[in-house]
Amino acid sequence: MRIHLPQSLLLVSALMALSHASMASADEVAEFQNAQTAAHAWLLDVDQGDYPKSWQEAAEPFKKAVTPAQWQSTLNEVRAPFGKVVSRQPVLAKYTRSLPDAMTGEYVVIQYQTRFANRTAVETVTPMREADGVWRVSGYFVQDQAHTNKPKP
Question: Which of 93, 91, 88, 85 is nearest to 36 (CA)?
Fold first, then answer.
């Protein structure tokens, strides 16, 4: 299943995220789009159940934190019950140079509102720009919308 993100939405979110500067350069917008494209391609591997490929194409810190077997096991346990992706819409994309418990670098935190066959969730994908200049996913988190909306005791 292919899920295409509207290019206009990508450009608008790129410009919004870079609005902290007085004028975003064409290079900054291109890099922001490269990060989003990397996240999208990586998610397609996960969506198709190609967990080994998603691990292989992840950023080095990701691969150091989890083995391929652990990654496969985690996705089988956590993600598989959601079912196939029905739709995915980006709702947030933010550039940052620091994240909790992560080394300083260049990151784009992207959140998607995703409708799966069995439930709705918020997916957070964090590509980072590695030393070779390529954006690769360094983090992934999926949160069931039912748990997000439950009142706290």
Answer: 93
